[in-house]
Every structure is written in structure tokens, then in C-alpha cells.
Design goal:
Helix content: 25-40%
Mean pLDDT: 90
Strand content: 15-25%
Low-confidence stretches: none
Number of strands: 23
Oligomer: single chain
Structural class: alpha+beta
Largest sheet: 8 strands, antiparallel
């Protein structure tokens, strides 16, 4: 499969080959094509565009859009005004520009000597729309994109209803895995439903050079790793949780006749074609904080995070779950509003709230009438916690690890005991077959004692530590899932309030993401 880099090199080589002959027809030296920067200057003179275009040609990825404009202007100098001709000059430039340069039927005309061309109103609108869509797509794909916060997993730093800008260029933008997609959609068509993309063309993972790399403490947007397979529909649940439940059900139903995989059969009998697989770039977008990078050893002890044995600073605003026990006489709406507590659950004798330790202590020390106690909600080990292997790992949200985060090029030992930690990375993310038989490990049907990782991995956690579906549930985030860095909140709306009573959080607008 051709990589994005090879495709771009073929495209660029075709354009340069064509421009060699276009320059000659325009009365310019063909050798100028081979001199970087100077070739752009000569090209701008041929299509008679101002030198200040160089400013935009120097901006990464915006330069792609500018080259598209120059290709269209080049087509015009050969009196190609029809939409399909100008479209071919951009989409098929590697072949169309050489055609213009080599064909004896096609003659260059200086822009000053071109006859006036009158566009119809429909054509003017079409050109304007295409211009806007292409420009927006390039900016959205390679530079910056707007996102919204749908859940409270980052509450304390980011609120439900925050609208933020995510820099794709911070870590280097990814080439789309599925380039054939309806513009400005993610994976589903609005209103009518159904897939908004086609997998007829699938590109391998490639990341262009960016400003830097993922660092500990960054608020990172990424494609949800466990979103590779999903169950559609309003009554659907997480596929992997449903699969675990189905396997438990199958063991109970079939008893001694149970075999691994029977639960999966039950699941497909129930949901059928509502179970679909999605490519990496079409999985749900999540935002969490990176707490460990490739090569780190992570451990959580009593809610405190240790990286490589060193305790790390807790991000400002980190929240936990607390049980507020009440005697029935408490009226707490004003309390929630006073301390901006929005993530609230209810049980028989009170409430479960998610807030910071400082606010929990204020509530405790205030001795509010009707509140009997406020205590940290205990977090217990369970099957839902990564690596879903309670036989070997009794981890919880508050006490987890130690766990090594794989780095590209790392060679780790494989044992039946640690397979559950790295199985998904080796099998799903890096495309291998991995089995354990008779106390031995088999990699791609060959006995193996070690594995060398191909990608870097990261560990992501929400700031709302007890109410965040994060790496503690589904494990590592591969580098090919990383989308960008959250940098700026430009709007914030409280979904629980109307426009006339404070829906806009004025004090939360235009703030940098911590």
C-alpha cells in the first residue's frame, strides 16, 4: 500500500515535470523549475500573481491551498475555463499539467492578453463555495479544528459545553486514513444517518512534522481506542463491555460445553448488523490529559500518580467522587450552585458528587444542616479495569500498576502473565497474531519470548478521576490515534440553563486550556 508521502512525491514530481514544459512555452527557462523558491517566483510571473503570495506559500499546509490556486491560474493561461478542466488541473495535476506543457494543441497566453471570460451567476456561486470548502478542509485537517466537550470526564479543567480549538499542528497532522468522506462530517451523515465515508481508498498511518511531541500534562484529543468496534442504536452499549458480559452469560448457559468465542456468537445474534468496525480516523474523539508518555513506568498509589518512581504534581482542579449522606431535611440546590457542582448522582441516603478535595473539605467543615457526612467514594478492583485480568492484576482506579508504557523500538519479554497487558497493542494496534498455548507464547504462529513495538504509546486520564472512561479502563493510546492538542476555549455554554438565565458562561470564555 502506498504511503501518503509516496503519493505526494508522485503528485509533486508530475507537476514539476509538467511545469518544465509550461515554463518553456511561457518563454521562461525550463531549468528554473529545479531551483527551490525561485521556481515559485517564476511561476507567479507566468500566471501574473503578486509576489506577496510568497507569504502564504511559506505557511505549512496553507501553501498546499496556494499551489492549488496557482494550478487553476495556470490552466487559465491555456484558456481552460470550464469547471472540469480546472478541477483536473488540481486533482489530476500530475498528468494534466504535463499534458498542457507537452501537447502541441495547447498554447500558453499571457494573462494580460487573455480575452475577458464572463462567468454565470451559478458558476460564481459554485467557485466561491468550492474555494471556501477546500480552504476550510485544509485548515480543519492539517492546522486547527473546533471541538466541543460532551462529557464531564475533564471537569475541573474543561466543562461540558466548552467549545475549544485543537491544534493539529502541535504534534503534526495525520494524513486521513479514509480520504473519501463527506466534508465536515466525522463518521455519520447528519439527519439521515448512515456512514459518511467510504473505505474504497485506505491510506496507512502517516504523521507530518509538527511543532513538537506529546508531553506529560498536555490535554490531548485522540481517537477512542476501544471505538474500533461499536454497537449502533439507542439501546446499544460499549461493545467490549457487552462482549465481556456475553462471555459470562455463555459460560453460565453452556457450562462444561463452553468454548471461548461463544459469547461473541451470542452478541452477534442479539445485535447482528448493528455491530460495525470503524477505521482509526473515524472513531469517536476523546479528550484526556496525558499523564505518561512512551518509555514511562506508571503507578497510581492512593490516587497519587508516580512516573518512573517519582510522585507527580496533581493538575489544578482534579476531581474525585464523594458520597454526601443526608438526613432528608437538606436542601442542597444552593450548595451545588455555590461550589459549581454539576456532576451529581443520587442514591438512597444522599448524593454522589464529583468535586475537588478542597471543595469537599469546605462542605465538610461548613457543617451544613441535613448533611450527615461527606466521604471519598471507594474504588474497588473489578473486571472493567484494564487489563480485565483479575487473576493476575487486582487494580482499581485509585491503585494501579506499576505498568510500563511501550516505546517504539522497545523489546519486551512476553510471558503468559503479562500478555493481557500488551495483547491489544500487539494484536489490534500493530496487526499481529498472539496466542498462549501450553505455557508458551506464539507470535504469528511462531514461538516467541520477546516482542519489539512499532509505535509509541501514551497513557491518558481525565481530570474528573472517578468519572472518566480513560486508559485505566481500556489501556494504551497508540500514536496513530493522537489527533492534536487542546489549546484554547472560545465559548462555553451551560446546557442546563436557558439563554435568559445564564446559559453563556461569560467567565469561562476565551481561556487557555491548562
Amino acid at each position: 500500500m502506498l504511503s501518503a508521502t509516496i503519493v505526494l512525491l508522485i503528485y509533486a514530481a508530475g507537476i514539476l515535470a509538467g511545469l518544465w514544459f509550461v515554463f518553456k512555452k511561457a518563454g521562461k527557462p525550463s531549468w528554473a523549475v529545479l531551483i527551490p523558491v525561485y521556481n515559485l517566483y517564476v511561476w507567479l510571473r507566468i500566471i501574473k500573481k503578486p509576489v506577496w503570495w510568497f507569504v502564504f506559500l511559506a505557511i505549512p499546509f496553507i501553501s498546499v491551498f496556494m499551489v492549488m490556486l496557482m494550478l487553476v491560474e495556470t490552466a487559465k493561461t491555456f484558456r481552460k475555463y470550464r469547471m472540469w478542466e480546472q478541477g483536473a488541473a488540481v486533482l489530476l495535476a500530475f498528468a494534466y499539467i504535463p499534458y498542457l506543457g507537452l501537447s502541441t494543441k495547447e498554447a500558453y497566453t499571457h494573462p494580460d492578453k487573455l480575452p475577458p471570460f464572463k462567468k454565470s451567476k451559478a458558476r460564481e456561486w459554485a467557485d466561491a463555495i468550492i474555494f471556501a470548502v477546500v480552504a476550510a478542509l485544509i485548515i480543519r485537517t492539517f492546522l486547527i479544528e473546533a471541538y466541543t466537550i460532551p462529557t464531564s470526564s475533564m471537569e475541573g479543567s474543561l466543562l461540558v459545553g466548552d467549545f475549544l480549538f485543537v491544534s493539529k499542528y502541535a504534534y503534526g497532522p495525520k494524513a486521513p486514513n479514509t480520504p473519501l468522506t463527506v466534508p465536515f462530517t466525522h463518521h455519520t451523515m447528519p439527519v439521515i444517518g448512515g456512514k459518511s465515508y467510504s473505505e474504497a481508498i485506505k491510506l496507512p498511518y502517516h504523521r507530518f512534522r509538527g511543532l513538537g511531541k506529546v508531553k506529560r500534562g498536555d490535554a490531548v484529543v485522540f481517537n477512542y481506542p476501544s471505538g474500533d468496534t461499536v454497537i449502533l442504536g439507542e439501546d446499544a452499549t460499549n461493545y467490549y463491555i457487552a462482549l465481556m458480559d456475553a462471555e459470562i452469560m455463555a459460560k453460565a448457559r453452556f457450562g462444561s460445553e463452553y468454548q471461548p468465542g461463544m459469547g461473541r456468537q451470542l452478541l452477534y445474534q442479539q445485535f447482528g448488523d448493528r455491530i460495525i468496525a470503524r477505521p482509526v480516523d473515524k472513531r469517536e474523539n476523546y479528550i484526556k490529559r496525558c499523564v505518561a508518555i512512551a518509555g514511562d513506568t506508571l503507578e497510581i498509589k492512593n490516587r497519587e500518580i508516580y512516573i518512573n518512581g517519582v510522585k507527580t504534581a496533581t493538575p489544578q482542579g482534579v476531581q474525585y467522587s464523594y458520597m454526601i449522606t443526608v438526613d432528608g431535611s437538606a436542601y442542597l440546590d444552593q450548595l451545588w450552585e455555590k461550589y459549581n457542582i454539576t456532576d451529581i448522582g443520587q442514591f438512597m441516603h444522599g448524593y454522589i458528587v464529583h468535586t475537588t478535595p478542597a471543595i469537599a473539605e469546605k462542605i465538610r467543615s461548613s457543617r451544613i444542616p441535613g448533611i450527615s457526612s461527606i466521604d471519598m467514594y471507594p474504588q474497588q478492583p473489578g473486571n472493567a479495569i484494564f487489563p480485565q485480568d483479575t487473576l493476575n492484576f487486582h487494580w482499581s482506579l485509585d491503585n494501579f500498576g506499576p505498568l510500563y508504557i511501550p516505546k517504539a523500538g522497545d523489546r519486551i519479554e512476553l510471558t503468559p502473565q503479562n500478555l493481557s497487558l500488551y495483547r491489544r497493542a500487539i494484536v489490534v494496534y500493530e496487526g499481529n497474531k498472539l496466542e498462549s498455548r501450553d505455557g508458551k507464547v506464539y507470535l504469528n504462529d511462531q514461538p516467541a519470548t520477546h516482542y519489539t513495538f512499532k509505535m509509541n504509546y501514551y497513557w491518558m486520564m481525565g481530570d474528573n478521576r472517578h468519572n472518566s472512561l480513560d486508559s485505566r479502563y481500556w489501556g494504551f493510546v497508540p500514536e496513530d490515534h493522537v489527533v492534536g492538542k487542546a489549546v484554547f476555549v472560545w465559548a462555553s455554554l451551560d446546557k442546563n440553563k436557558g439563554w435568559l438565565n445564564g446559559k453563556i458562561r461569560w467567565d469561562k470564555l476565551f481561556r487557555k486550556v491548562r
